[in-house]
Design goal:
The chain has 289 residues and is an alpha+beta fold. It contains 9 helices and 10 strands. The strands form 2 sheets. A 6-stranded antiparallel beta sheet has the order 5-6-3-2-8-7. Strands 1-4-9-10 form a 4-stranded mixed beta sheet, sandwiched between helices.
Amino acid sequence: MTSYYHYTSAEGLKGIICSQKLRATDIRFLNDYREFNEGLTHALTRLNELSINAEGDSPEEADSLRHFYSRLATLVELEGLRTHSFVTSFTDKKDNLRQWMSYGKMNASYCIGFKSDFFDALKGKLSTTPTSGLSYAFEKVSYEGHQHVNSIIAIENIILRIDAAISGNDVDNDELMDDFASKLVDEMIEKIMFAACAIKPKEFTDESESRLIFLTNEAKIAPQNIQICERSGILIPFIDFEFDYEWIEEIIIGPNIQTDLAQKGLESLLKSKGINCKVTPTTCTLRQF
């Protein structure tokens, strides 16, 4: 089964192991400044188009769909302004040269391999931690434009949901239909926001990234849960979340001119925390001086 790998520096690895926490960074502060905004802008453009041009089997259905998309566009725009989005990145690329060069540091890179079922275990952990008030999802990053967003808001999907509710007698009066529509809007907003956090340009396809995404707004998260770190003079918001050491399957030491020493130091750190996992040096023949 596929494991998930998180590449980091020696300093990052030490922080992760010693604190037993992973960090999720505010998406606005990631390397690609277009992230999130590009996906959200596309969603809003498409929703506004559908609020004008949506077609149904009858004039009444078309009017209902247009009203639905207009309401959804308004609320998605509002949510985009007030939502805090935090992400932690993983990949299924083990011991990958591109990852070492992009996300590690010279002679100080490490790759933590988490077990394939770690997200399922994490869901249970999150339900009992201070981050439990957040919405979260594990999303595969899309590099194919905005197909994922389009599929979420497609007219046929909305009609299928409504038809299913009608056939199940869940909306047999106006009050129930309004309640159903309100819940559907809330569900769609969350899906759109998660999708917007998992879109990257096709130039990054070879990263094969997956993301653990947290969504919140100022009303849903206590200020003390948001922390601040400094990088190159910029103050960057983040949250952290706990994990269990047993979820670590292996740690790979990146390209290093002193691999033997790096391995001895890493093994000492792991032993001090009672962590029993595989430790191996990279097979990438990259020398950095």
